[in-house]
Structures are given as C-alpha cells and as structure tokens.
Amino acid sequence: MQLPFLSFESTNKEIKKEILQSFESFFDREWYVLGEDTTHFEKQYAEFNKVKNVIGVSNGLDALHLALKLLNIGPGHEVIVPSNTFIATVLAISYVGATPVFVEPRITTYNLDPNKIEQAITSKTRAIMPVHLYGQACEMEQIMHIAEKYNLFVVEDNAQAQGACYKGKLTGSWGNVNGTSFYPGKNLGAYGDAGAITTNDAEIAKKAAILRNYGSGRKYHNDVIGYNMRLDECQAGFLNVKLKFLPKWTKQRQEIASWYNEALKNIGDLILPIIAEEASHVYHLYVIRTEKRNELQQYLNERGIGTLIHYPVPPHLQEAYINLAFKKGDFPIAEEIANTCLSLPIWPGLKKNDIDRIAAIIKLFYNE
Ligand SMILES: *Cc1c(COP(=O)(O)O)cnc(C)c1O
C-alpha cells in the first residue's frame, strides 16, 4: 500500500458538500472580486488569530512583500531573516530592494536563535522576520524584546504555523505586520493561491487594503502606486468553510506527531522534533534528521512511503542569491539541517497503523 507525502482525501471528503455549496453561492452572486466572502473571511480569521485586522491577499509571498512595503522598508535597509527559511521570506526582502541578513537557527528547534540576533544588527537594520518553521512558534518574547531595544519592526512569516502559540499568544499576532499563506498544502489551505496580512495597527491595515487594490481607496482614484494583490473571492469562500475545521485538524496533526514521537524514539541516529519551552507546534511538517537522510528517503520511497526535504538548499547557497557572495560553510547550522532533514507524511486522516507501518520500515532500515 502506498502512503503519499500529502493527501487531501480525508479532509476533502469531510467538507466537499460545504465547499460545493460555497462555490454555487459565489457563482450565483455574480460578484467575483472582493465580495462578502472576502469580508467575512477577514473577520473570521482576525477572530481566530486574535488580531484586530486581517487583509486577504493573493498569496503568502505577496503578504510578506506587502508587509515590508507597508513599513517603508526599501533600498539601503537590512532585514534579519533565518538562514534556513523557505525562499519566499527572502524574496519578499529582495522585492522591496532591501538586503537579507541571515541569522542562524537553533539546531534543536530549527527556529531563529534569539541569542544570535543582536550581533547581526547594524545601523541599516530595519526589521526582523521570524519564521515559525515547520509549525513551531519562535521564541517571540525574546525577539520582540530585541526589536524594542533597537527600535526595529517585526514581520512574522506565519505561513506554516496558523494556530501555534508562544507563551499562549498566537503566532501572527506579535509582529507589527505579519504574513501568512493559504497555499493548498498549508495547515489552512485554499484550493489555489491565497494569503493574508495580520496586524493590530489600524492605520497599516487601511493602507494594506489600498495597496493590494491598485493603490486605490476609492474606485478610479489612486493615492499610491499599488498592486493587484487581492484575495480571490472564490478562495475566500472555501477558506471560510475550512477555517471552522482548522482546530480539529490541528489536534489531529498533533496526535499524529505524538504517535511518531513514540514509535520513532531511540532508533539509530534519528533526531526527532524538539519543542522550545513555552512554544507550541502545529506540525505543518513532521521533520526528523539523520546522517543517512538520502538513503533513508530512498528506502522509504521504494516501500511506497512519500517524503520530502524542507529544504535541500539554504537561501544563501541558491543560484538566485549568488550576488550576496556567500559560500558553503558560511551558515553551518542551516547547511546541517538542509543535509540531514527529512519530512515524513503528516496530514489529517493518517491513522495510527499508518504511522506504525512507517516506523517499522524505518526500524528495518536501521537494522539492515
Ligand atoms: C509557503 C510559504 C511561503 C509562501 O507562501 P505562498 O502562498 O506559497 O506564496 C512563505 N514562507 C513560508 C515559510 C512558507 O512555507
């Protein structure tokens, strides 16, 4: 039997009727851009994320780009970003013309190491972008403290951690302006591209709503040079349906992770996820590490188990960032994670015997 890395079969079945109803209602309303479903979703997601304002946008990358733009970050500025993030966080910095400054994560949690931030701050630094990687909340209290001390903005990349907390406070509600993604595979995923900005700043929220819509607050009157970065109305309708299920699906992810933790303990050189004190994890990904990563991935693949690597090449070694002139060895922790990490299947609908079967194959791999 095959076990794909990701399957929507179970969650799709749960919501199919409501999704089709939402589409029919959207279709019949004949109002296809920025309509009542978008407004409703922004309200519902604000309630879920415990923030004052949500502005739906086209995708997660656009959300991060817009967030930096809203804070007037641009050429000549530096933005601190983890050295092991997904490329989109770095691209957003490039889009506004600022320079990414990489700071290493903790090798335990894979999240930005607060102890390494201060030494990266210069007179050009404007913002810190913590990424709640794999679904675990960063140590936000420490990060906010440093930002206050140096008068920096904080822009959270909350694409992977909807519903995670640090000291009981939700990710996406700490920073000045934060971005999240509703890419289909994310914990709250649409059926296409979608994203949002979350902020407690009403002025910024107002500007964001204008900037995502050609820079126009009033139809055909343009205050600034804006973008078309609107959240698709049809996707907003789907997200309204799925948001109601998110807490339940998050619990399922956490339960699957606990099955893995139990079934995979004390096997070979495997390193299992570690959660920082006072942080919670919503397991967008369940990531293990081993020196034999490539061999283990192939072994699992040959036995029908889908896995992925998040991510095989850290941003500083990407061809796209050759101009930053980094080389192998410059960010050894990010490189170590890239060389040893492996993401196992985790999606609502996986059963305990699926996890036990995966664990049995992994044990076999180490015993051969
Ligand atoms: C998915 C993701 C993004 C980008 O979101 P898109 O909606 O795909 O543009 C940004 N940052 C992180 C950490 C992500 O996982």
UniProtKB/TrEMBL annotation:
GO terms for biological process, alphabetical: polysaccharide biosynthetic process
Modified residues (N6-(pyridoxal phosphate)lysine): 186
Keywords: Aminotransferase, Pyridoxal phosphate, Transferase
Gene Ontology MF terms in the entry: pyridoxal phosphate binding; transaminase activity
Keyword Thylakoid recorded: no
Key word Transferase present: yes
Pfam families: DegT_DnrJ_EryC1
Residues the record marks as active site: 186 (proton acceptor)
Lineage: superkingdom: Bacteria
Family to which the UniProt record says this protein belongs: Belongs to the DegT/DnrJ/EryC1 family.
Protein name per Swiss-Prot or TrEMBL: Aminotransferase
Source species: Adhaeribacter aerolatus
Taxonomic lineage of the native organism: Bacteria, Pseudomonadati, Bacteroidota, Cytophagia, Cytophagales
